[in-house]
Amino acid sequence: MMIMRRDATDEDIKRVVKEIRRYGLKADVSRGDFRTVIGLVGDERRIPFDNFSILPGVKEVVKIETPYKLISREYARASEGENGIHRTVNIGNVHIGNGEPIIMAGPCAVENKKQLYTIAEAVKKAGAHILRGGIFKPRSSVHSFQGLGSIDRKSAETALKWMRDCGREFDMPVITEVRGEDHVDLAAEYVDILQIGSRNMYNQDLLAKVGKKNRPVLLKRHFGAGIEEFLSFAEYVAAEGNKDIILCERGIVPVGKGREYTRYTLDLAAVPVVKRETYLPVIVDPSHGTGRRDLIFNMCCAAIASGADGLMVEAHYNPAEAIVDGKQTITPDELQDIIKTCREIYRLVKTG
Amino acid sequence: MMIMRRDATDEDIKRVVKEIRRYGLKADVSRGDFRTVIGLVGDERRIPFDNFSILPGVKEVVKIETPYKLISREYARASEGENGIHRTVNIGNVHIGNGEPIIMAGPCAVENKKQLYTIAEAVKKAGAHILRGGIFKPRSSVHSFQGLGSIDRKSAETALKWMRDCGREFDMPVITEVRGEDHVDLAAEYVDILQIGSRNMYNQDLLAKVGKKNRPVLLKRHFGAGIEEFLSFAEYVAAEGNKDIILCERGIVPVGKGREYTRYTLDLAAVPVVKRETYLPVIVDPSHGTGRRDLIFNMCCAAIASGADGLMVEAHYNPAEAIVDGKQTITPDELQDIIKTCREIYRLVKTG
Amino acid sequence: MMIMRRDATDEDIKRVVKEIRRYGLKADVSRGDFRTVIGLVGDERRIPFDNFSILPGVKEVVKIETPYKLISREYARASEGENGIHRTVNIGNVHIGNGEPIIMAGPCAVENKKQLYTIAEAVKKAGAHILRGGIFKPRSSVHSFQGLGSIDRKSAETALKWMRDCGREFDMPVITEVRGEDHVDLAAEYVDILQIGSRNMYNQDLLAKVGKKNRPVLLKRHFGAGIEEFLSFAEYVAAEGNKDIILCERGIVPVGKGREYTRYTLDLAAVPVVKRETYLPVIVDPSHGTGRRDLIFNMCCAAIASGADGLMVEAHYNPAEAIVDGKQTITPDELQDIIKTCREIYRLVKTG
Amino acid sequence: MMIMRRDATDEDIKRVVKEIRRYGLKADVSRGDFRTVIGLVGDERRIPFDNFSILPGVKEVVKIETPYKLISREYARASEGENGIHRTVNIGNVHIGNGEPIIMAGPCAVENKKQLYTIAEAVKKAGAHILRGGIFKPRSSVHSFQGLGSIDRKSAETALKWMRDCGREFDMPVITEVRGEDHVDLAAEYVDILQIGSRNMYNQDLLAKVGKKNRPVLLKRHFGAGIEEFLSFAEYVAAEGNKDIILCERGIVPVGKGREYTRYTLDLAAVPVVKRETYLPVIVDPSHGTGRRDLIFNMCCAAIASGADGLMVEAHYNPAEAIVDGKQTITPDELQDIIKTCREIYRLVKTG
Known about the structure:
By secondary structure, the first copy, chain A, is an alpha/beta fold.
């Protein structure tokens, strides 16, 4: 990255950007409270760093060793100072990464308008901040229900409108998963946060596409991905200029023989690790991570205790009735208990 | 699946298909040498099987228990008899799954026309059957070279034309990876086999898109996927009517602490397992599976000995010069040795 | 298991035991507050259950489906009623599994008397309940320090005496690992709890040996073991009549490629899972589980939030000076913070 | 290691050994055809290498970077030259690592004399070289049959005598597993090769014990162990002066969700990797590695093709009748086919 002097002019910045492009790379201009920093997107080895260090306005040229440069703490610290090491992602009145644990709750799949509204009202009352609901459902089997969005474009649009209107009705921003490249433009018209599911974490074309939209992105870790890979793929979003990224741990593939007691292995140590490597907020999804309703309370508490900035939880007024993932879905009452306890744990841990 | 009587008329078949659609499912009509079988795409539980068994022309109604119904041995056996349990995928004069091990070789990434032609000539001489070459490269870091296809559409088209022409020149069908949904139509114009890379195995929208093209599909197992998932996602291709699927084992995520001696863990037992579960041909990619040039010979031999129908190998006249994956790339001379030995092992194992 | 009537006589019980032995199995007589239950050790299939159900004093004959029968909730519930589903392991004034989170702390390896006493005093002051210290150290390399106990018998005995005396001095029960079968008798003379390390979880001969000692046993999960295996090997201890078993989650082998950010993957969902499957208390060792001092605070909090009954933590007045595992060792001051916060989280979660 | 001059005297060697001990390490004197090399057992950092390089008879002082120094190729090359990089382990007329693939076959568990003799005769006729048979069986459940050796000492001795006599009768060396430390002395009286099972790979006290016996040792890789750990624990045997170690790959824990098609994941790339890291022979056990009789043929062929020096296979005249592991057991006829094909593959691969 090129760290500019505090008195660097717009002219100086433009010149550096132009030079970077001349070598076939893209420039990421980050104007912080502290100073302006210009990140590099592409193969740094092509850049003659010495030549840059003598350009007007350039204070210092620093190489970031990880493949996730633009989302690294080091990069934020350079432009924002120590305050920059934790970014708050703001969506309306909701501030992820600041002040209290943010709860995203709602049905696994949006089934119909009434189901959505009933659940939305209940989770709002329980204390949730953001409404989640699956419209384009990724499924392991082509023979399973793939969400209303997979029927046809009209159904997709209808369901998206329900989400938008329901969010307004209950004063919650809304989030939904975009599963394929074709969903991005459409979903971005209606929802506040675009979610990339675990199965698509490695889908770099999709990541680039959501990175170009003016919407916060929630990126779930792939269940086979190491942390370095997770962050390297988040970098695909950041490389498009979008740093409003919320990272989500949701469990990794189980190891070992025999009976599976949980769907995945929730890797909670990833939470403090990621928070030390990047400035991005991190949330946890214990619903998919465990697949078991009876473990959600404990694993929500543990997630917040591990340092998470929030939770994503599947809730339904009648879990047994849910078309998808009923086994891991809790009731609004259970959600309320969780939110109450998690708030206290959050306070204890952040000040502890 | 609905197994039709041998004397079932087209009328009978149409009626069954129509009935299936009436319940919101799609029908897969498989007219075998033995008899016609009609598979179901969608949630079977909606179907009143008893009602179907009494329709004219229906011999028997059978439920297939796995989520990979259309690619199961059971389904092929019903329409083709015992001969159906091994499908040969034919691409011009090349027959995968029949007679000899098929070798797909070429550079990891297509870099320029000369590089491609030089390698193609060499691998052809060494005995390879199909030319591989990466144009849209999936990469772990946004800061790495993403292939000529990722620069712009014109570069993509140029590289694809090189592939097509080079294949014709040296009489080899060509294969390239389609990384994003936008690549499918374009690539299908120029190449003979569409490859879905490991990172995209779970990308069901991409799978559906290639399934609609009239091209054989090579599907690599995701490195975090169990076999059941691997086959369930292959089913997404088959569900579009395309059964010309070649499955490829390329290594799974390493388990355990400490130094990594290989890039992934090549799961060769998956080869005979998959060949018992489905009728599809299976190949192995030891280049990505091990990441080590000095292991390629042994692991190619082991792959064929495990029952594989072919191999995908990265070869380059000067591996040290390759922009991508030089460490795992072998020379045409090494390839020739491998092909020679593998042919003999293939013969021993198939008749052993 | 054979559930006896509340009015069953000693005679009745003896008769059932004798009958069980006649079929080549061992009997585990569990006299609970509620009723007496007789468990079976060995291959149940040899037992003609019908014949037993008509013996005098037998109320009911029930087959437990898991391989971990004697430590299952079901078994405890039968003899103790609902109160039996959580066992408290008592060591002097310390009660694991009841009332507050129990902290086992101390040096990774006992290095000398002064080091041990200094650390013991400090961790006691910080609020720890039990003193840990390694004397027989399992090590990945034969070329590393294996603990004082591995030098010769005299050194082992000296170190064990330090432990015993130090525990008395600071009023803490003491725990040490027995690595080989030869260590069991010796260690049992001096320490209060016998620890089986992760690497020895599958060592059934060692488990049987500690099971015969009149000492609580702390069993760590092997880092390659599924939960079913973990519990099945705990059963080897219980089969010798010793139910004072404390189970310890300490991380499983990492999955995935690339840089390792933590030594192992702490599987915290295993805590509530194990507590639902058995009646045994569960603790967590975040020191080995993460291998990183900067993650210990968060992961201790998360462990307690997940439902753990206690923690095992490596502490040293000067971590940089520790011969073994300094990187994951915290100071007594850090320990004090952890204990304080964990107590509050424990209270929140248990009553939440 | 200290590489001695070819004209170094016994006096020189003794002096170096004495010096090494003075620093608290043990010396491993390796008198090769090429020259004498003195390895170090213990923490090298304590040794002032410069002081050693000027001792009489010392040619060169070299640090080996891996934790598996005494079994490294580098160590063997220093004393034996290039010929030393492949060691042949000789047991009577059987030479493992030289000339042909060595087959160890027999029942999973020795059940009675007749069963053992019948199987021994059949596997000998099929072409096997070494008779295997389990007497001390490691089992996941305390409620399962643990082998005749676990009943009492007398049964153990009887079964061991059967093994010894049966081996003599059919002119095959015999191998059995020693599961606990108490089994070592006893088993060493009767069998030719002492086997350490997968579950005990990390049991360093047991490894040290078998290392002291004058018997070749077969060490199975633990199913949760990386290769570096595997070799580091083999070093525990070598550190006792015993280099007649046969390494055995037998599958690692499965990764990923869903149905398990094989018991473990056979990591065949470990074979050529280990053969490049050490001079020890490597064999493969596809019976435990796959757990499926129908995969044994292919996986035996693949193991030999990957470069293995031999195989361990469970065989029984009537697999369905076997008390333990019948599902993965093949018949002598199947074994004969395997041996025949594997011999040809071995020849192809070694000369290929």
